[in-house]
Every structure is written in structure tokens, then in C-alpha cells.
Fold this protein.
Amino acid sequence: MGNLEEKASKFAISAHSRINQLRKYSQQPYDVHLRAVARLVASVGSNEPLIAAAWLHDTVEDTPATFEDLEREFGTEVTELVKQLTDVSKPSDGNRAARKAIDRQHLAGASPGAKTVKLADLIDNCEDICRNDSRFGRLFLLEMQSLLEVLADGDKKLYGKAVETVMNCSKKINQETALQEKVTENTLQLFRSAFPKKLLPGQRGIRLFTDAFAARDLQEPLLSFDAKSLENPEFGRTFAANKIIGIRRNGVVTGYFNGDDFHFRSSPEERKFDSRQVVDLEASLTDVIHVLTHFNSCFVSLDGTVVGVISREGMENPVVRMWLFGIITMIEMLAVNLIRQKCPDNNDWKETLSSGRLEKATRLKAERERRGLTTDLLDCLQFSDKIQLLLKDPAFLEGSGFPSSGAAKRALKDLESLRDDLAHGQDITRHDWVPILRLAQRIEHLCGN
């Protein structure tokens, strides 16, 4: 293993393990997948930057690391490969099919090297998904076949292996019994009938709440200077690290510098705006979060001209904290409504909780009644208890998209951590970024995208 590959493997393993990311079905450490992809790429060549990109291909999408972090650690060649492998669609681009079409078009313009890594990624994911989730496997196989149409420029050996994998997995899935499919569909129908339709008012509430805030509420004006200022050797020394500086040409901002660019290099190269990190004034907060998962900064444009900037640290803004806490509160309300529908008698769920949790809720109920408040025992349960009750329902677990109760419980733990940090005024961008991203994705899923 070369120095670059070894450095990339350590960086990737550390980044994914810090957020306790596991493989969806086997619950193995996520580096099992990264190692498999890197080995497939290494089996067809010894291009070290390419193997490094194989290790890092999911780092920006799944962990708090950004493209700027990769560029600082591994240089522009590896970072560019990872950029080509990272989806460009945003939550607001539509449903899954619409977003996949956008990402497919982006991948079609990738380099042969990036396409080779993507082939390795598809091979390992396809085998894992079709072995463990035949229902989703059908959809994944269709999407993979569509992607293969634009990946022919990748390594020929891996391309052939990818085609063979699709054929083998298709045969395996088609051999499943109709009874198994019927059971799965019946379970999903229970979820659809109980959750989206009956709780539509709550879903509308979430949509109205999310639509109330946009990039315009978070942006800070982008400090900019005329390009002639770059001719002054003292330019940049007065700017603090991490400060974003726009550069104007003919009155229009055409690029930027990070303040720390000048701390590392005396004459840094001007950065051009990546279209993926620019949103308009009315972009949703979920889109802003999506951008800030990939980049350190999200730029805001008006009539095609960049006028503002939002940093990840800027997400500590009271508006964002209120938005996140409000969303979590609405999810809790939806959970209570669903439990009431599924278990109209409190005795139906009491026995599923420990005596200690019930006693705590009983004390809270008595205190509220002492103060003259109307309440019931379900309202007095802790947030985690309410969600746990939902997770015990197979129909909810199946329809919610979680592969297992263990995965759902880990997501719940993340959500609780974010909720507690919001309630106690703690830093959320350093400690809770991944839960924030996952919550934003769940919002889009819940609201129909």
C-alpha cells in the first residue's frame, strides 16, 4: 500500500467510524465496503490517486468532511475524482427518479478513472443489496442498468463484472416466491394507510414550517474586492482565517478566496464557484444543509450573481436552531398521533415499557394535573419512549425505510442527541452535523419527495 493510499484509508476509516456508520444490512463497520471498492479498483491497476479516491468516495456525502478538507489533505487530483463521484442533486430537485437522472447526467461527464471507481462501488453495493433486500434490489438493479449506459469509459474488466453482477442478481431476485412479495406488500400497505394519509395534517404542518425559512434568512453579505486588489502583495494578510472574500470583475463577483488560503500560500489561486455550492435566495434549508455537507461554504445568488454566503458555522443561527427543534417537536406530535391510532387504549402499550419509564411518566402526569393541566399518560412519556413505541410496530419499521430495529435505534439516539444539544444551547455543527443531515433527508422523505 502506497503512502497516498494508506493515508486515504486511515482518513476514510476514521471519518466513517467517528459517526458510527455501519453497512445498512450486515451492520458491519462501513470500511468493509470501502475496502471492497478499493480492492476492486486496485485489481485492475496501480493508479494510487484512483485507489485513494475509492477509499474516499463516500466521505463527503456521509461524514462531516468537505471537499475543502480533502483538498487540504490529498490535493486537487484526488479531490476532483471524489467530486465526480459525489451526487450533485439537491433535495428540492424532486423525487428519487428525478434526482437520480440529474446524478446520472453528472456521472456521464466524469473521467474514465472516476467511472472505474463507480463501477467498483456499484458491484459491491449491488451484491449486498440484492442479497439482503430483494424489494429495493429490483429498483437498484434498474438504476444500476441505467448508470451502466454512461460508464462504458471505465475499466473494461470491471464494466464486464458489473454487467455480470446485474445479470446474476436479477436471476436471484426473480426466483423469489410470490408469497414473500405479497407479505412485504401487505406490510407496506399497513404503513401507507396508517401513516401518510391519516397524518396528512401533520405532514402539511412540517411542510409549512420548512417553507417558512430559506437561504435568505441565513446569508451574510459576501465581502468582495475588485480583482485589481490582487496586485497588491499585502492583499489578504489582513483577513482572518476562514473568512470568505469575493473577487469582482467589471462589477460582478466571479470567484473567491478562503481567508486561510493566504495563510498557507502567499499567492493563492482564485477559486471559481462550483455550481453545486450555489443556491438562490429562496432555497430551502434542506438544500443549504445539503450543500454544506459537501462544502465549507454555501453561496447565495440573486439573478445569477453571488451576493451572500452561508458557512457551516452559520448554521448555529437561532433561525436554524428554531427550525430544527420545531421539526423534532412536530415529529414527536406525529408519533403521538400514530400511537393513539394504533393503540387507542393506553394498556395496549404500557406493558412494552419498563416500570421505571412508566413511573417517570406517571409522576409527570400527576404534576401536570396538580397544576390544572389536561393531559394523558402518553403525552407524559419521554421523547425517546414515544419513538421506541413506534419502532416496535413492524409496519412502521418496514415503511419508514430503516433496514432493522438496530439502525432505527441508532437514528433515534442521534435525534435525541441533537434535541438535547438544541435544548441546552450546545454547539450543533461540530457534534451533530450528521444527525442534522439525516433529519433534513427524513423531512424531504416525509413530505413526499
The chain has 20 helices and eight strands. The chain has three domains: 3-176, 221-309, 318-446. Residues 318-446 form one domain.
